[in-house]
Write a structure and sequence with these properties.
Elements lengths: L1 E7 L2 E15 L3 E13 L2 H7 L7 H4 L5 E16 L2 E25 L2 E24 L5 E12 L9 E10 L4 E10 L2 E3 L3 E2 L2 E2 L3 E3 L2 E11 L4 E8 L5 E5 L2 E4 L2 E8 L2
Antiparallel strand pairs: 1-2, 2-3, 3-4, 4-5, 5-6, 6-7, 7-8, 8-9, 9-14, 10-13, 11-12, 14-15, 15-18, 16-17
Length: about 260
């Protein structure tokens, strides 16, 4: 239980901090509730970290970046099904006054319009459901399944409602290690920038399933080799407007630790 304050340019925000936990089943099931908040000040690092394929915009070149104030309430359950298998489920409601997403804009160059993505900061209320199950029976084998569903009161650009991921790690011995992942991302759409009361129509992006596998071999403590298969289902993905993944990829590589 506590209170945090944040002062930014004569704007004072107060954030409550409250977390309570109750043991429903001894060492097996816990219920908790939490209330809190924070303020994030955006900078170029956070913007390009979220989307490294941005082109210039007035927001970026003039460094006019706002902050995002978030308040949330969360309830959840976490516990153990049996030895080596744990799970957690949580439901969160939050409100944010500067949620960052990326809309489509067009820059006129010569006789053509060049598409680009620019950051947009939107006031939004959302509900988020998270669930995860984690299994680690031995030190050699680890698998986990995670899902997230989000519902918004605004139409956001390039933000899916549903994401599911299945991951696994297998350590055969000190030299051989394999990791795999299967990810599902729900359908999204790019929203268009509104200029002079004219808005570019949204561009729909289909849902996608991404399957990857990587095998590592450690020759010794300094030298290692790997082979990885990306997009093993041979689909065409649009991660970002300027980051297309077309077809299956097989990569080989070596690592050296100094």
């Amino acid at each position: 239980l506590g209170v945090n304050t944040d002062l930014l340019a004569d704007d004072l925000k107060v954030f409550p901090e409250l977390r309570a936990q109750y043991e429903l089943i001894k060492k097996g099931l816990f219920a908790y509730s939490e209330i809190g908040g924070n303020r994030e000040v955006y900078n170029l690092r956070t913007v390009y970290g979220a989307n490294p394929f941005l082109l210039e915009s007035s927001i970026i070149t003039d460094n006019i970046l706002p902050s995002n104030t978030k308040y949330f309430a969360r309830v959840g359950l976490n516990g153990n099904l049996f030895r080596g298998v744990s799970y957690q489920v949580s439901l969160e409601a939050n409100t944010q006054d500067g949620f960052m997403h990326f809309i489509q804009s067009y820059n006129y160059l010569g006789h053509t319009y060049r598409p680009r993505l620019i950051p947009q900061f939107t006031k939004v209320n959302m509900v988020k459901l998270n669930a995860q199950i984690d299994a680690k029976w031995t030190d050699k084998f680890h698998v986990w399944l995670k899902g997230e569903y989000q519902s918004f009161d605004q139409h956001l650009s390039h933000i899916p409602e549903l994401k599911i991921g299945l991951n696994g790690d297998f350590h055969y011995n000190d030299q051989w290690f394999m990791s795999t992942s299967v990810g599902y991302t729900g359908a999204r759409s790019y929203l268009g920038e509104t200029v002079d009361a004219f808005s570019n129509p949204p561009i729909d992006i289909n849902s996608m399933i991404d399957v990857n596998c990587k095998v590592n071999f450690a020759y010794n403590k300094q030298i290692g080799f790997y082979v990885e298969g990306l997009n093993l289902l041979n689909n065409n993905f649009d991660f970002w407007q300027h980051d297309l993944l077309i077809g299956r990829r097989i990569n080989f590589g070596a690592k050296y630790r100094f």
